[in-house]
Amino acid sequence: MDTQSTPNPSNPAKTVKYLVGVILVMGSLAWASVPLYDLFCRVTGFGGTAIVADEASQDILDQTIKVRFDASKERDMPWEFRPVENVMELRIGETGLAFYEAYNPLDVPIAGSASYNVAPYSAGGFFMKIDCFCFTEQVLEPGERIQMPVTFFVDPEIVDDRDAKHLHEITLSYTFHQIDLPDDYSDKVASLNTSNTDVAN
After folding, report:
1. Which contacts (CB < 8 Å, 24+ apart) does range 142-146 have?
2. Given this structure, which CATH class describes domain 48-182?
3. Rounded to 5, what percent of the chain is helix, strand, coil?
4. pLDDT tens digits, residue range 169-179?
């Protein structure tokens, strides 16, 4: 009769610890994947994400390119939002200044944040933003209408890129979505409401 020994069953406590560790690691990776992907896109221009530049281009080419401006909102965003100018033609490397207009038609302040994208995707790594309203949260008072600037240029290196050098037009798109009012702003609104109630009484 074969009397080979069989291995002892695994320790249940070790198995539970192992599984908990795996779950924690996978959860951490999932949580970090969105900001890491966003950072990757901002640095490389992947997926049509425009790159942030510290200063204007020193090289300006004779070749021109058209930039179209597009605006949209998430479904529940109550603002009106549009580009002031729909299309602009400028030389590659030349600094452009465009404006978007936002209007809050409600009788309460609304905060918003803009996400952006460049199309076609191959142009994302060459569309350089120097300054943009999308870098900060925006709060519009009741009935307030503002014009928000974006300063940009198209990197001259685009003419040497295999996929992007034949582009004649780039579209810059913004989508605004509603966010919570900043904490300090909410406190100010609450304070004003309390003061108005005291005056009424």
Report:
1. 142/104, 142/106, 142/107, 142/108, 142/109, 143/104, 143/105, 143/107, 144/103, 144/104, 145/101, 145/102, 145/103, 145/104, 146/101, 146/102, 146/103
2. mainly beta
3. 35, 35, 30
4. 999 999 999 99
Tokens 């901002």 belong to 42
CA distance 98 to 72: 16
Alpha helices in the chain (DSSP H): 12-44, 183-200
pTM, 2 dp: 0.69
Give Cα separations from 156 to 29, 61, 69, 137, 187 (angstroms): 37, 7, 20, 31, 47
Beta bridge pairs of residue 145: 103
Look up residue 52 and give its DSSP letter.
Answer: E
Among the listed residues 11, 49, 194, the one whose alpha carbon sits nearest the alpha carbon of residue 132: 49
Give the pair of three-digit tokens for residue 86. 């729909």
| Between residues 92 and 12, the one the model is more confident about | 92
Locus of tokens 């198209």: 154
In the numeric block, the tokens 């009012």 are attached to 181
Domains of the chain by residue range: 12-44, 48-182
Q: Are 126 and 154 in contact (CB under 8 A)?
A: yes
